[in-house]
# Entry
Amino acid sequence: MKKLFAAILALCMMMTACAFAEGTLTMGTNAHFPPYEYYEDNQVIGIDAEIAAAIAAKLGMDLEIVDTDFDTLVPSVAAGKYDFAMAGMTVTEERLQSVSFSVTYATGVQSIIVKEDSPITGVDDLYAEGAAYVVGVQQGTTGDIYCSDDFGAERVMQYKTGNDAVAALVAGKVDCVIIDNNPAKAYVDANEGLKILDTEYVEEEYAIAINQTNTELLEKVNAALEELIADGTVDAIIAKYIPVE
# Structure
């Protein structure tokens, strides 16, 4: 019986390993965050999409990308709906209560977008005594979290996407938008009359959110990601979308 049990256990372990090696990794994202993830010809591309594909290739797996609302990503990964999430996502204490995070792979800066004739000239203007400027943010992002903490919910307008927040700025519904610097550049390029302030709001690091119970996947993703960082693949992907000025 012991030998039979050992044989069955070994077979199950082999089947699990094969399933992992030959399976599909499902990545949750919000594909409205250029250059990290966005649509081109009905396909999600960008920094995160390419890094995820490189990780999947390292693990001998296929990659499936699912586009959804940003604020559903962490709870969906925690519930096992996706294997992991990448969306220019910052490690925060609150998110660590629900998911694990990989090693970091990129650095982001939260920037402030305003109209060219805006009286807001720097981040200090938002903190000035008596200031009542309304800030637009993408719901569930660190920009949303930080702004809500710093300025209070009454001064923060949440939108489903960065596009929606910037549209609100153009329409005069908010006084500024706080969002990652690289998407900010794309939004300013696409909307005449906007600019990015020289002073940054906050700097942060991006990582991959993974279900806390899936320690095997976390270890494998970290190992693959560290190899891709070491051999220059990650830097090359980032440089492809964010050329060095």
About this structure: The chain has ten helices and 13 strands. The mean pLDDT is 89. The longest helix spans residues 2-22. The radius of gyration is 21 Å.
